[in-house]
Amino acid sequence: MSAAPDKRALEEGADFTPRFDAYGLIVCVTVEAATRQVLMVAYMNRLALDKTIESGEAHYWSRSRQSLWRKGETSGQVQRVVSLSVDCDQDAILLEVEPGGDGKACHTGRKSCFYRKLERGPNHRLVFVQ
Description:
- There is one protein chain.
- By secondary structure, this protein is mainly beta.
- It has helices spanning about 5-10, 45-55, and strands spanning about 25-30, 40-45, 60, 65-70, 80-85, 90-100, 115-120, 125-130.
- The chain has 2 helices and 8 strands; from the N terminus they run αββαββββββ.
- A hairpin with a 5-residue loop joins β1 and β2 (about 40-45).
- The longest helix is centred in the middle third of the chain and has 10 residues, at about 45-55.
C-alpha cells in the first residue's frame, strides 16, 4: 500500500493506496453479499484495514471507544469478507460480507443500521418514518 504519486495514478492505477483522513480513518460501507443490502457504515484505521485483509473478517475502529474491534467478537455477528473494493479516489471502502450469527449487524438488534427513512408525505414534504 504505497502512496500514489498523482491523481491519475490514484484513480486509474493498479496500486491499492487507501487515503485515510486527518484522524487516520477511512469510511467503510458494509453490505450483505447475497442481497447487497447496506448493513452498516463504520470507520477503519490502518490496523483495522490490515486485520480485515489478513483475517478475512471485518474489523473496524470504534470512534466512541477509541479501540479496534472485530465485528461479532462479543455478539457472534462475525462478518466474513467476500470482497473489498475501494472507490475512485480511494477514500472509502466497500465490504461485501456474509454475516454470521443471526445476521443482525446493528447494535439495536436489527439486520441493518438503516431502519429509518424519510418518505414523501402530505404536500410532498419529507416525513421521518420507522
